[in-house]
């Protein structure tokens, strides 16, 4: 039996238990650190200074897996911050003692999980800005770093809450509080899981599918350590105590969850494992004085209140900092993640549309997709102008325009882009855009199909530039009456699959091949695609009125009965290009008839623009 741990150790560890579930909200501004990191650093420093009076009780079988995992992580080029994870595990196991003290520490965690549950239950009422989101379902959470970590915390709250309610030795008042907390966690967790049904696995990629051999080996070492701790918990299990069982369930459940939904290894993972590891050691029978960390608790809730309402710019892991989070993705050349982040944030922060789409445009430029970048830039500028051309965004607008010009200048001779011209039109600088376009036409850089008339070419360019009012100026250009030798679709417009579709919408565009048309639609969240071939004669059809708008149908939820809708003329055999049923305000089914592709309405903006919605159900 060893001596009782010092009061300061129990005090600091209990403070850690109180702080860790807050995730984003435990950030300490201006020192760019977290409260949990400060507590572990303080605990380690004091232990080192008093090392002679506090002997090490951690067995070698705990040390070497952590050391091996740390070395392998460094060899893999991983973050050196893993050393803090290892230290957290060691000091937690060092100062964890008997069941009563361990339950006291776990109870502190339950208090904060309850607070997190309340915040998420009333997030909309309180007007809290989400700190985590899932693109696939639209789920948001307040507090956690990510949705998967937030779900994990709520699950842990349910498991530990049931333990405290029915199996622990706490007081009746604490049991009642624990029962209430458990029901609250179940309610919030149920609501989140309902939104995540059918797409939960898309939270993240499989760890073992993409990890290097070093990372996999490090992971296996940590799993071996977990299994050793589980074995010790079973062997040293106390009679009439279920604490060992709850730790075994926590460790195994965490491993399974982390395998299915990998996330960054954080200090709280090491803390939970350290609690189990320390309790599993045989010298746990001494009396430990239990202290509530009142001052740390006050600091925890003060930090939480501060971080709830203020997103500090230097906190890179706080997704509420749009510019900082985007800049981090941009520096790391993680442009796909940047696009994904900005697409989601556009629905959460509509008042920052200009900043969001400027970042998307910068990412598209780096990806070499100038046409997509020009459209994103135009959306950003449209919002910026509507907001009065604020000085805060002016420098960013000029920077993106400069980067777009530089990227266009570096294109090879075989590549042509009208992205810069589109950007100038968006800024209201139509004269500059037309001057640049005329220079390219005179140089023969832009080719047009020979089948189009001068008026059709004028309308085509006005549509591409994003301003149909330019049609009247363009149709007077003698250049557009000249024949050209190459097809436009190879050099000007980047054809892409629509990034997102509204529920119940159908879009189509002509592909790069002149005999291909592609359809994209979504019904109830299910994305459908069809690709068919049509004769090249589609280019020679008579253009419809440029002012003709896309077909739009409004569906009322209170609508009774069924109604059949079609797109395109109905043939003698009662077939149409698109057919769908609406019942009770909802789409029941939608079909494409590939034999009726001749019913596609002609308009140059459809043929040469990346994609155009021709049918949209408005709910």
Structure characterization notes:
It is a single chain. With 619 residues, this protein is α+β, with helices and mostly antiparallel strands. It folds into three domains: 7-309, no CATH class; 322-490, no CATH class; 505-618, no CATH class. Helices cover 52% and strands 10% of the residues. The chain has 23 helices and twelve strands. The protein has helices at 7-19, 35-49, 60-75, 82-95, 99-121, 123-126, 147-166, 172-195, 207-210, 213-235, 243-260, 267-280, 294-309, 322-331, 335-348, 353-366, 370-386, 391-409, 419-426, 430-442, 454-465, 471-474, 604-608, and strands spanning 27-28, 33-34, 132-133, 140-141, 505-510, 516-523, 526-533, 551-554, 562-567, 578-583, 586-592, 612-618. The strands form four sheets. The protein has a five-stranded mixed sheet. Strands 9-10-11 form a three-stranded antiparallel sheet, with no helix packed on it. Helix 3 (60-75) runs antiparallel to helix 10 (213-235). The longest helix is centred in the N-terminal third of the chain and has 24 residues, at 172-195. It is elongated. 37% of the residues are buried. Mean pLDDT is 74; it is low at 200-210, 485-556 and 597-619.
Distance between the termini: 70 Å
**SS class:** alpha+beta
**Low-confidence parts, pLDDT < 50 over ≥5 residues?**
200-210, 485-556, 597-619
How much of the polypeptide forms β-strand, as a percent range? 5-15%
Helix content: 40-55%
Average pLDDT taken over every residue: 74
Q: Give the total of domains.
A: 3
Radius of gyration: 31 Å
Query: Count the strands?
Result: 12
Shape: elongated
Please report the number of helical segments: 23
Sequence of strands across the biggest β-sheet: 7-6-5-12-8
Largest sheet: 5 strands, mixed
Quaternary form: single chain
């Amino acid at each position: 039996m060893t001596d009782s741990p010092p009061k300061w150790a129990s005090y600091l560890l209990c403070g850690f238990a109180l702080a860790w579930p807050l995730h984003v909200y435990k950030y300490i501004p201006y020192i760019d650190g977290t409260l949990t990191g400060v507590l572990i650093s303080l605990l380690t420093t004091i232990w080192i200074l008093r090392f002679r009076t506090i002997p090490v009780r951690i067995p070698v079988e705990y040390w070497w897996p952590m050391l091996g995992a740390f070395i392998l992580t460094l060899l893999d080029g991983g973050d050196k911050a893993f050393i803090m994870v290892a230290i957290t595990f060691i000091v937690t196991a060092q100062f964890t003692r008997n069941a009563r003290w361990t339950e006291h520490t776990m109870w502190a965690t339950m208090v904060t999980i309850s607070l997190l549950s309340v915040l998420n239950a009333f997030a909309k009422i309180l007007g809290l800005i989400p700190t985590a989101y899932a693109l696939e379902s639209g789920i948001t959470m307040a507090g956690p770093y990510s949705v998967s970590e937030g779900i994990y915390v709520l699950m842990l709250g349910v498991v530990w809450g049931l333990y405290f309610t029915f199996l622990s030795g706490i007081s009746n008042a604490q049991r009642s509080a624990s029962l209430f907390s458990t029901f609250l966690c179940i309610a919030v967790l149920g609501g989140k899981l309902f939104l995540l049904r059918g797409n939960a696995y898309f939270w993240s990629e499989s760890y073992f599918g993409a990890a290097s051999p070093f990372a996999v080996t490090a992971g296996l070492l940590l799993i071996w350590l977990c299994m050793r701790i589980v074995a010790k918990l079973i062997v040293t299990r106390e009679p009439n105590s279920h604490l060992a069982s709850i730790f075994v369930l926590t460790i195994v459940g965490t491993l399974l969850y982390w395998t299915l939904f990998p996330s960054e290894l954080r200090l709280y993972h090491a803390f939970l494992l350290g609690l189990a590891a320390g309790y599993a050691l045989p010298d746990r029978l001494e009396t430990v004085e239990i202290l509530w960390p009142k001052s740390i608790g006050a600091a925890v809730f003060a930090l939480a209140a501060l971080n709830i309402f203020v997103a500090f710019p230097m906190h890179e892991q706080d997704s509420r900092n749009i510019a900082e989070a985007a800049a981090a993705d941009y520096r790391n050349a993680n442009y796909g993640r940047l696009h994904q982040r900005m697409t989601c944030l556009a629905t959460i922060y509509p008042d920052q549309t200009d900043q969001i789409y400027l970042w998307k445009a910068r990412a598209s430029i780096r990806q070499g997709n100038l046409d997509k970048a020009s459209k994103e830039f135009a959306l950003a500028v449209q919002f910026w102008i509507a907001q009065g051309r604020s000085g805060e965004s002016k420098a960013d607008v000029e920077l993106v325009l400069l980067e777009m010009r530089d990227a266009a200048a570096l294109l090879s001779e075989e590549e042509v882009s009208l992205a810069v011209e589109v950007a100038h039109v968006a800024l209201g600088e139509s004269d500059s855009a037309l001057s640049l376009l005329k220079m390219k036409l005179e140089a023969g850089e832009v080719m047009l199909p020979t089948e189009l008339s001068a008026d059709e070419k004028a309308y085509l360019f006005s549509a591409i530039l994003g301003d149909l009012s330019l049609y009247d100026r363009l149709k007077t250009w003698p250049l557009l009456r000249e024949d050209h030798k190459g097809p436009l679709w190879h050099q000007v417009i980047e054809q892409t699959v629509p990034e997102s579709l509204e529920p119940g919408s159908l879009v189509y565009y002509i592909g790069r091949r002149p005999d291909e048309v592609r359809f994209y639609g979504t019904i109830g969240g299910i994305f459908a695609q069809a690709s068919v071939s049509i004769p090249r004669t589609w280019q020679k059809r008579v253009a419809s009125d440029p002012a003709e708008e896309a077909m739009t149908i409004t569906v009322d939820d209170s609508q009774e009965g069924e109604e059949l809708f079609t797109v395109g003329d109905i043939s003698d055999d009662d077939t149409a290009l698109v057919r769908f049923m609406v019942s009770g305000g909802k789409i029941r089914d939608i079909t494409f008839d590939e034999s009726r592709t001749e019913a596609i309405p002609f308009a140059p903006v459809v043929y040469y623009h990346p994609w155009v919605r021709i049918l949209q159900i408005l709910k």
